[in-house]
Amino acid sequence: MATSIKDKLMIKPVTLKYIDQYNELMRYVFQVTDRQLQESGYEKGELIRSKRPVL
């Protein structure tokens, strides 16, 4: 019997250990720069701190 892709996938919890990778992925996917964040009113590091409760 053939296994489906669902049988091979595993969901792992994302913890603060991965916050840097999370930030890099978000910036890549949405093409967000530090300058754009500052122009939007975010201070340096504020966006990462705001995502900590999510993780």
Topology:
Elements: H1 5-8, H2 19-30, H3 34-39, H4 46-51
Task: Please give a structural write-up.
This protein is mainly α. It contains four helices and no strands. It has helices at 5-8, 19-30, 34-39, 46-51. The longest helix is centred in the middle third of the chain and has 12 residues, at 19-30. It starts with a helix and ends with a helix.
What's the short version?
By secondary structure, the chain is mainly alpha-helical. The protein has helices at residues 5-8, 19-30, 34-39, 46-51.
Give short descriptive properties of this protein.
4 helices, 55 residues, 51% helix, 0% strand, mainly alpha, single chain
What's the helical proportion of residues? Answer: 40-55%
Main beta sheet strand tally, sense and closure:
none
* Number of DSSP E strands: 0
Report the oligomer.
Answer: single chain
Summed up, the helix count is 4
Note the beta-strand portion: under 5%
- Give the structural class: mainly alpha
Low-confidence regions: none
Nearest-angstrom radius of gyration? 16 Å
Label the overall shape: elongated
Mean pLDDT: 79
Give the CA-CA distance, first to last residue. 37 Å
Taken in chain order, the helices and strands follow as HHHH
